[in-house]
Amino acid sequence: MKTIIISGAGGLIGGEAAKFWHEKGYNIVGIDNDMRAYFFGKEASTGKNVDEHRKNLKNYQHFQTDIRDIALLVRIFKEYSGEIAGVIHTAAQPSHDWAAREPSTDFGVNAVGTLNMLEMTRLYAFDAPFIFTSTNKVYGDTPNSLPLVELETRWEIDKTHPYFEKGIDETMSLDNSKHSIFGASKVAADIMVQEYGKYFGMKTGVFRGGCLTGPTHCGTELHGFLAYLVHCAVAKKEYNIFGYKGKQVRDNIHSHDLINAFWCFFNDPKEGEAYNMGGSRHSNISMLEAIQKIESLLDCKMNYTMLNDPRIGDHIWYVSDVTKFQRDYPMWKYEYDCGRILEEMVANECEKQGNSGFKGYSFNAGRGKKDQGFAKPLPREQWLDRFPVVLASNDSYASFVATTLYSILENTESFVEFYILEDAITSRNKKKISESLGKFKNWSIEYIDVSKYAIERFPDIDNRSPVAFARYFIGDALPDKEKVLYLDCDIIFCGDIAELYNLDMDNYPIAALWEDFIEYANIKKNLYPEYKGGYFSFNTGVLLMDLNKIKTYTKTFVELTLRFQNLLKYSDQDVLNIVFDNNFKRLDYRYNFQIGNFNEFKKAYPNKAGEIMKNLFLVHWSGMEIKPWKQNRVLYGYLFWNVAAKTVFYKKIKSMRKKYIKKRTDKKGLYFLNRIPVIEKVRGEGFVSYKIFGITIAKITRQEYIWSDIYGYSDANMY
């Protein structure tokens, strides 16, 4: 089996790399002697992480080896020689302050240890890519000589400077600056890794990291700014800010994003290339801004002390320009920004400390939502004429799957790949769906058992069908797809689905309809009962999804579902709204025209409603009861029946409607009341009264009146 050797395998980056490459099918050889406990104390020990690797990673072998000991490294590399597919070197002494205490130890670990790892790779795995985690401290304090401007909460570079737009690139000099002892040892290692690539022709990559962070980071006062800040906030400890008025700016990159950058390099390695690798303009934050964010998440005030003296070699403002790496590896993209990083870290730290103060992932419950505009069509030359469409259904909804698919194919010439995430749809109904689509040639269909993804993660969640959480697992079910369109099964298309699929998502993970015209008593209200400003959400019945991004959230979806299972009213829609509350592209209302909320929409946007009704693109009968097969008089119900009549399920659906209506009219005794001629029926605002000789004998809702099958209005007059 191909093997990856990882130094520092118990640390944040090494540990994430071990799990990532293990999932890719590689044997992992971890090297870590837990010097972190020696550097920063037992609370910073990597022992627990190593134990978890041994427990959870089947093909993991661990060596408690000091990378300064070349003889021991020879034994390891000799043992796996011929199998080594890559070397990821993350082991290091990472602190400015600690390095000054023991310069020899610092240089031995950072510089000599790196040389040892390089030489072992040259001798025993010459063709294997060598990935090295360097640091932005190789630039010393040169960034502090940039023209900086003091703002209210941060230092910022002058807008006229070339670094303002994207940050600091690799052309910044490493010379004539104060590096700190730590920075100097990392410079030695950084240059040596490049030289082994340039001189020997090895495939070596240097990643000059900003702040590398993530939920498993064991932060200490001397190292791990965000992790230690979160720890202090949750534990209610005092936090010390060293200099610069707390306005010093750091760009933070999540371990997930860094590991994906490693993966890109691993698959297309260069010889001796160095890359600045941090959060860039996408993900940066000052100390004060981070404190404000954490305080808002925990609804508390942090206890911190502002010290005048900064650390030696510390940066006032540092933002990485990652353009060089993105140019070499254009497929790599960020999945995390500082907001999401902090939300994840706070949630994990609260769980670790047993603190219930964190209510959940942060969202603004409709508070001041930034209107970033509706998704616009991609340029026509970029349109795809073959694309995937995903639906989720159990056997009881199979007939409605057929009607939705038929309406799609009836209105497009594009080839549509249908993927049905199903829970026990019978082979008979699958055959009927295919028969219903028999006249069309531009389609394929694949059924995927969603229960195998859902049940293993939460076997019993309030007795709900796995279909209720299907959207979580689309990325798992379709690993080779990058972008999909998800649809509910209560939709009929009147326009070409290609127009919807080929909208530009602007690098957002999803595009959805923001229901800014109606409030729900949803999970947001349950979590924030004190808020009075409106609990809005997006509807998940029509979703454009970037699966490369969505796949990174699967674990988060499941964790939040288990955490809030007693509060979930709309299943996965609630959780998706927590995670992507301010991180989605808005769909125009015509792309998810909902009948269940039509009155509220028409009241809020009367002109827009009129425009949509003149040129329908799709109709979505959202809500549990506003369905054409449950009621006789539903707006645009005739569109559904026109399509249903063309499928082999038509008789079954008609029979279904009769049963629904009979059940509801019998329940209220309406069958009897509607047939007594002396009873007067009086319409009120939202209800109907039954009167005899002016005396009210019964009062029902308008919806129940519709169910009673005596409403004589046309669809247009109903509203």
CATH architecture term of the largest domain: 3-Layer(aba) Sandwich
Count the domains: 3
Cα-atom Rg, whole angstroms?
A: 30 Å
Secondary-structure-based class equals alpha/beta
Mean pLDDT over the full residue set? 85
Poorly predicted spans: 358-371, 528-534, 706-719
Helix content: 25-40%
Under CATH at level 1, the class of the largest domain stands as: Alpha Beta
Largest sheet report: 7 strands, parallel
> Would you report the number of β strands?
27
How many separate helices? 28
Indicate the proportion of strand residues: 15-25%
CATH superfamily membership of the largest domain, which one? NAD(P)-binding Rossmann-like Domain
**Shape, please?**
elongated
CATH fold call of the largest domain:
Rossmann fold
Give the end-to-end Cα distance, rounded to a whole number of Å: 67 Å
Question: Reading side by side through the largest sheet, how are the strands ordered?
Answer: 3-2-1-4-5-8-12
Notable characteristics:
19% strand, 7-stranded parallel beta sheet, 37% helix, 28 helices, alpha/beta, Rossmann fold, Spore Coat Polysaccharide Biosynthesis Protein SpsA, Chain A, 719 residues, 7-stranded mixed beta sheet
